[in-house]
Sequence to fold (212 residues):
Amino acid sequence: MVNEISIEIKGISKIFSSKRAVFRNVNYSFKSGNIYSITGQNGSGKSTLLKILAGVLSKSSGKIEWIVDSMKIDNEVINEFFGFVAPYLNLYEEFSIDEIVQIVADIRGIELDLQFINRMVTDFGLEKRTLDPISSFSSGMKQRVKFIIALLHKPKILLLDEPFTNFDELGKQIVTAIIMEIINQNGIVIIASNDKDEIEICNKNLSILDFQ
Fold:
């Protein structure tokens, strides 16, 4: 049972091959029980920092420490603790929900909790579409599938890039409820966004403009 989690960013910088610095020397601590926004104008590096946290983009310098119950977590197992959702993540659209859930579980070595998955599918209103190819889904439905995949292993941390993208009001309510459930379990949610509705549910803020 995980009780306390923190993510410690120490001197993180990102410089692209053009030698243009997106941000420099970011120092910040993310702590259990909080919803963080990462804000800044378009192109300021919000998504870049989130991708670095998720391990899908390399940093130029600095380090990130993931600490669970006072113990540093090895990079090899960090993925067990977080889920990542972003509009630019691709889905294998030739598969159905049932198929892609099983594929992702096999890749990650996750034992599926079918009761939990069925609850998520129902909560997202997709229970009648589980056998249809994802290619036939609307953009909002595809976004819901991304959340289901990100939550398969019941992560304590959610990394979200503009999570309300393509969602109607009901979709936003469902995602907000998921966020609050993770926070009630003493997890961490980090949202990269400039959207007012998304920022309003956060109680702490990291402005990336402070590091440029």
About this structure: The beta strands are 5-15, 21-31, 34-39, 61-68, 71-72, 82-85, 157-161, 188-192, 204-207. DSSP finds six helices and nine strands in the chain. The longest helix spans residues 169-184.
